[in-house]
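Q: A reviewer asked whether we had any structural model of the full assembly, not just the individual parts. We don't, so I'm hoping you can provide one. Inputs are below.
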Amino acid sequence: MKHVARWALDVAAVRGAEYADVRVLAQRSRALTTKNGKVGSASDAESVGMNVRVLAEGAWGFAASAELVRGAVEATAARAVEIARASARVKRDNVRLAPEKPIVAEWTTPYKIDPFTVSVDENIDLLLKIDQELRAVDGVTLAEANLNFNRDEQWFLSSEGADIHQTKLSTGAGYAAYAFAGNEIQKRSYPNSYGGQWQNKGYELIDELKLVENARRVAEEAVALHKADQCPEGTFDVILDSSQLGLQIHESVGHPIELDRVLGMEANFAGTSFLTLDKLRTLRYGSDLVNVVADARQEHGPGLGTFGFDDEGVPAQCTPIITNGLFTGYLSSRETAHAIGENRSGGTLRAEAWNRLPMIRMTNISLLPRQKPLSLERLIATTDHGILMETNRSWSIDDKRYNFQFGCEIGWEIKNGKRARMLKNPSYSGITTEFWNALDAICSREEWTLWGTPNCGKGQPQQVIGTGHGASPARFRRIKVGSAFKS
Amino acid sequence: MQTKDHASEVFNRIKKLSSADEVEVHFSGGRFALTRFANNTIHQNVAEENSTVSVRTVFDGRTARASTNKFDDESLRQVVRASESLAKVQHPDPDLLPMPDAQEAMGSMDENNAGASARPTQPPSRYFEQTAAITPQQRAEGVRKIVGVANRYKLTSAGVFSSADSVEGIFNSRGLIAWHTQTLAETSITMLGSDSSGWQKANSPDVSNLDPLGLAETAAKKALDSAHPREIPAEKYTVILEPAAVLDIVGFMFWDYSGMALLDQRSFLNGRIGTKLFGDNVTIWDDVYYPLQTGCPFDGEGMRRQRLALVENGVVKRVVYARATAERMRRSDLRGTAGPITATGHGFPLPNEMGEMPLNIVFDAPNSSQTQAAEEMIASTERGLLVTRLWYIREVEPFEKILTGMTRDGTFLVENGRVVGGVRNFRFNESLIHMLSNVEAMSAPVRSSGEESFDMVVPAMKVRDFNFTEVTKF
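A: Here is a predicted structure for the entire assembly that you could use as a starting point for your response.
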């Protein structure tokens, strides 16, 4: 595929591009679902194509094509330059790229079992076994389960001399049990809602998740919610399980730190950010216990934001985002790094596919665990009166990322250090920095999970990409609970 | 770009490569280009061309699908092999029907659907050469004019100007052929002041229907008029929702207008078909043939889409059905409460777990004496809010259809019949059933586009007692 990239780079140079990079990408995916004892969908897909990104007259152009024959590739490169010249008609300043040493490298996601080598028979048997367990519980009216596998093999070459061959592999799995009765639909999911758990791993993830072993309990909880009390409205101490906290990090830390949002580039769609540039190293984002990093390196774990190099050839890095509560870093790219006084990109530019422009995306945005041991059960034991909330059910936040509201699938009232009654329809809301400053306890590494969010949407045309979020359960003092159901 | 003749030739090659009982091939793709601007400058500018072929095979009641965007012989052989391999290891599906032939795909008049009127055989042409031919230079020129408006008012603009040229086609081994071509041009504009913003968006198959300058002027006026927003308490207000706000919130209920959603017991319409759920003034159609609609007139199996009344005068009349869903519902214990049961041409490509959905929503205009322009709604409001747009809407409770979300890009206080200024944005938690029961006035419906749901033909609405629960910081 490198020859394809070189055809494009040559034409871009001849046409006058000041900079060009090319990605040739082969993507493969498999999606299997079951529903109420039957296979819901079974599909395999592959998509192969290339794109050229150029700077000409100080402005960006981008063109992509599925045709990899020489004539089509060269025409695509020429189109990218033509588009860049059109962009230059409406520009203020020339685009400046932070320097990056061109790298020649190979990188592959570490894995034990290639999921595409596991037979579909075996996949479907597993899903149907889960389905059977879920529907063995009286009151379950709908059982859904899914398995997903993805492989992206990419060749990245640039006019500066970068030459990177990178293969990423991801696996996802999960299920949900629904119980419809009276005028209510209740739901429980495992290991997380909206597709379960996803990581950059092989099929070994499936065994680690203990899917079948947890199905009966999850189904029983879905049914039991019908008899549970409504979560009260008021101000409570709240403990969030690690999956819900992962989404809280995604929405109220991950998105506001995207430097393109901060600089107004996403104002028309995803929105902007309350984290204006004056807040860097001055804003108390959270309490002293809050330490958040953006870490794309393999040593952080197999998150959906783990890679060797981003989509403009910058190596994976770890950026401190919140340090002992102080806001210390943004997610940046080669184009935006200078806006925060950096002379190097933070390495966060990624694209969904070969026909999409790479843009600043979350890597693994993780809340670091407490150093001293603290289990969830011990955290509950030190809480006089509060509510434990598990597994996301709804999420919403304003376009500057101040005001949020989350609903969870299940809650538990905590009284005198013990789990008391089950609560249905728990929800909480707040303002981002007030919320993170209310964190007063966080569990240690044993309770920490690197969650995958496979469905993060951003950009025009919209791109959906996977991000990672490590978290262990944490407690937040005096949080507003239940206003979602206030009529 | 893919042509019908080329697709036919590819289909014949695939048919020869397959040993399946039945074969269905979907073709999709086209050209897409988008010029994106922010901070009054073009910062992203992209173009792509792609075509996909997707093969569904059937062996003795087992089916599966595989797709590729490569059309050489070896790739087609591989995609057929992938589809067949996946299909052969499935368990037999007792609900799987033989593929429809051309005659079945044309459908029969649904006698149970009292609201169905004379059906056109084809939608109006949705392919316009001048939209397909838009160049990067023309898009840049359009953006330059929008930026000119921003500069004139000392505002900052952001947005997109895009154009697309697409095909969708289905061929199957029982002789069915369905083919649709379409163009679409779209403009979305945000104007930003120091503490305020305004937004407008529109699209059309025919670029000459777009008025980027008019949209820019309206967005700029909203940004200027909402400057220095005041904070007022979150509580119930009478709201005037502009069409984009209406479509973004009502769009969350149409997944439930599906026979499969009833069978799965995940629809808020379970047990409610035939009941009066909304106000007398709410009548909703699904109508792909409506001139302001877009999209192709057939579903994922090639079945012709029917024009259907989903809601009449507040009464939920029916849901839509794919062929297999209709068969399942006829055998189900729920059939007595499921409304008219017939395949309506709204199915997703098989195999899938969601069944079907209406995607061409058209709200009926109230009779002319009751239609009010948004300005008249404002004039008749003692105290309320004018809402340009809603954002980040999610379902909080699925059976009462309580939704949460935010206002955005132009939220105004209305007092004594006039707009008195901008207010800080609110979070709402509101039941769609409650909202559509409290509609006091509607404008004439217009084609509208938002970001939270698919495009629709909807009116502006004046709604009493809309439930706001929190205020944000801007």
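A: Points you may want to mention in the reply: Chain A has a mean pLDDT of 97. Chain A touches chain B through 86 residues (CB under 8 Å).
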